[in-house]
Specification:
Layout (H helix, E strand, L loop, with lengths): L1 E6 L24 H12 L6 E4 L9 H12 L5 E3 L21 H4 L13 E6 L2 E5 L3 E3 L5 E3 L3 H13 L4 E5 L25 H10 L4 E4 L6 E5 L2 E5 L9 E8 L7 E8 L9 H11 L1 H10 L7 H4 L9 H7 L11 H8 L17 E4 L1
Parallel strand pairs: 1-2, 2-3, 5-8, 8-9, 9-11
Antiparallel strand pairs: 1-12, 4-5, 6-7, 10-11, 12-13, 13-14
Length: 364
């Protein structure tokens, strides 16, 4: 059986009256609706079996934006499945400007949430194909938002995995479960994109033979691998390079599966006719604080005086990371710093280019 689906991640939908002018904001919510409309127009022509949206559906959880998106998704000719991102449920309880965590299933009941009392779900999307949608948003006793699966969800996950172990299982979750950046789990800038209890979740997925995870959150195009599991994270529709993916799977029970990944980009919307160039410049213009923090925190720990002259060379570093398949070498940098940034390159264990982040075929 062959089946096809699309992945659109982190669209950060913002209708015009909700857009706020936040200094140094990295993502262009101004293009969220026209970009989404262009993508939906394209994928409606592709005979899809379903669409996945792994979180950050809205700018910051505004009821108006959730309502707009629900109505738009309901008009599509194929099933849609979503999970909440950190921006969708920024507070545990509703406020004047955002929905609360427990409100999310009520907005998206047609898109996986058949049980309005539960923030995670499973469903057979096609015969023999099981989707598990997880909630990676948790709040501690002080109301701080965490990326974590609580104990109740972990128990449910193991029970569910044991019940569907004969199926081909696809997992969708907002936070990263496998590292997509060197030392991501331990770095001050990277760990907030990781699931806090990722090792525990990975152990469960390995135990029950899950091979494929779809995530968002990090706003980069990247495919990571760990112990037989591939995690495909898709960049944000409102950040350079404005990507989305089409996945084709040749499913044969009790055999290896062929997963074809093809990525597309939104290149123009009204008012942003050269969108990639403009959004790349947008990221570059806001790169200085981010790059200074990367240079002056562990593991590099450079002084401000050492770091400052290096930042102009790194203006486009994150944009190149976001595009996927980046190859990085800064020969003018001190050897330690040069080696550090080389780690971010899309290379295999032999140090040769391994360009799989955008277009590839995986055998799982």
């Amino acid at each position: 059986m062959n089946f096809r689906f699309a992945v659109i991640s982190d669209p950060h939908i913002a209708i015009s009256q909700t857009i706020r002018n936040i200094p140094n904001r990295f993502h262009l919510v101004e293009v969220s609706i026209p970009a989404l409309e262009l993508v939906l127009k394209h994928i409606e022509q592709l005979d899809l079996d379903f669409l996945l949206l792994p979180g950050d559906l809205t700018q910051d959880g505004e009821p108006e934006n959730h309502h707009w998106l629900r109505q738009r998704l309901e008009a599509l000719p194929f099933p849609v499945y979503v999970v909440p991102g950190n921006h969708d449920v920024p507070t545990p309880f509703p406020t004047a400007s955002s929905i609360g965590l427990k409100d999310f299933p009520n907005y998206y009941s047609p898109f996986g949430y058949y049980n309005p009392q539960q923030l995670y779900y499973t469903c057979e999307v096609l015969p023999g194909i099981q989707l598990i949608g997880l909630n990676s948003n948790l709040f501690d006793g002080e109301g701080k938002q965490l990326g974590c699966l609580d104990e109740e969800q972990l128990i449910w996950l193991e029970k569910t995995l044991s019940e569907v172990k004969e199926q081909f299982v696809i997992v969708m979750i907002h936070h990263n479960v496998i590292e997509h950046l060197p030392g991501q789990s331990d770095h001050v800038l990277g760990r907030r994109y990781m699931l806090d209890n990722a090792p525990m979740v990975l152990q469960l997925l390995e135990k029950y033979g899950v091979k494929l995870i779809f995530t968002g959150h990090l706003h980069i195009q990247d495919i990571a691998y760990h112990q037989g599991i591939y995690e495909i994270t898709t960049g944000s529709l409102v950040s350079y390079p404005h990507p989305y993916r089409i996945i084709d799977i040749n499913y044969q029970r009790q055999k290896q599966q062929e997963v074809k990944v093809k990525s597309y980009r939104v290149n123009s919307v009204p008012g942003w006719e050269n969108l990639p160039e403009m959004s790349r410049q947008w990221l570059s213009d806001r790169s200085y604080p981010f790059m200074m923090k990367l240079l002056t925190t562990p593991p590099l720990n450079l002084s401000v005086e050492e770091a400052d002259p290096l930042t102009p060379k790194l203006r486009n570093f994150w944009a190149d990371m976001a595009a996927g398949d980046g190859l990085f070498d800064f020969p003018e940098f001190p050897p330690l710093v040069r080696r550090y940034f080389h780690q971010f390159s899309a290379v295999n264990r032999e140090g040769k280019p391994h360009l799989i982040d955008n277009q590839t075929t995986l055998v799982i």
